[in-house]
Specification:
By secondary structure, the chain is of the alpha+beta class. It contains seven helices and nine strands, in the order βαβαββαβαββααβαβ. About 30% of the residues lie in helices and about 20% in strands. α4 (about 125-135) packs across α5 (about 160-170).
Length: about 240
């Protein structure tokens, strides 16, 4: 857990002690003084907090000396978030066209990490997904880990079922809206390849971090089982 509650100090008008009324930046400027930097993460833009009580008391004395009212220092219990930082914050969000994935397939495909399962979607599920793509309905995103250590390698952490559906359609394994891929005209093929599919690109993750990301993203669709996990590294082609 991160960012627990912290004790800070706030300058308030002496007549308003205990009411959490604070001196605003505009008031500082009226005194000819530069307002202090706001504490990061605060919701109110007029709340100035200090880590050191002596600093706050010195500033309160300055404000009192140039104003007809006195200012004092009170303790303030700063409440901040305790949720952990999302691992996705270390990923780059990009929107690729289907052409990007199809081109990747032609140059070696997506590498499946050892903890990935095999294909589990039915033909009906694949057809419905490709239909949703063509209709430009929200289809979520997929996630890859990009390894730049030697040659660029894409590990498909999430999205295997959806990309398998796309590849199977392009391979004429089923029709969509009554048409197999080989039956599309040039306009339809161009339309299909230009359809977008958002992706999160991770780089520099450890194996443990990749597995954590996989389990958080992949366990919301068709349930995984022990038998879904292959024992050897596979390649989706």
């Amino acid at each position: 857990m991160i960012n627990s509650n912290a004790l800070k100090y706030v300058i308030v008008e002496s007549s308003k002690r205990g009411s959490n009324r604070t001196y605003t930046g505009s008031a500082w400027e009226r005194c000819g003084l530069t307002p202090p930097t706001l504490t990061e993460g605060l919701d109110r833009n007029d709340l100035y907090l200090y880590d050191n009580r002596e600093v706050a008391e010195d500033l309160a004395m300055i404000l009192s000396s140039v104003n007809p009212i006195d200012f004092v220092v009170e303790e303030y219990q700063l409440q901040t978030k305790r949720f952990p930082t999302s691992i996705l914050q270390r990923c780059q969000s990009v929107t690729f066209s289907l052409q990007e994935g199809l081109a990747r397939r032609d140059t070696g495909g997506f590498v499946l990490p050892s903890f990935q399962r095999g294909e589990v979607w039915t033909i009906e599920q694949k057809i419905r997904f490709v239909e949703s793509l063509i209709l430009k309905l929200p289809v979520g995103s997929y996630c890859i880990h990009e390894d730049l250590s030697e040659e660029i390698k894409w590990e498909l952490l999430d999205g295997q079922q959806r990309w398998s559906a796309i590849f199977d359609y392009v391979d004429d394994k089923f029709p969509v809206f009554g048409l197999k891929y080989s039956e599309l005209n040039n306009v339809e093929i161009r339309y299909f390849k230009n359809l977008t599919f958002p992706v999160f690109i991770a780089t520099g993750f450890t194996e443990e971090e990749k597995y954590e990301l996989f389990t958080r993203l992949a366990y919301g669709g068709t349930p995984n089982s022990v038998n879904d996990t292959p024992t050897t590294r596979e390649r989706l082609v």
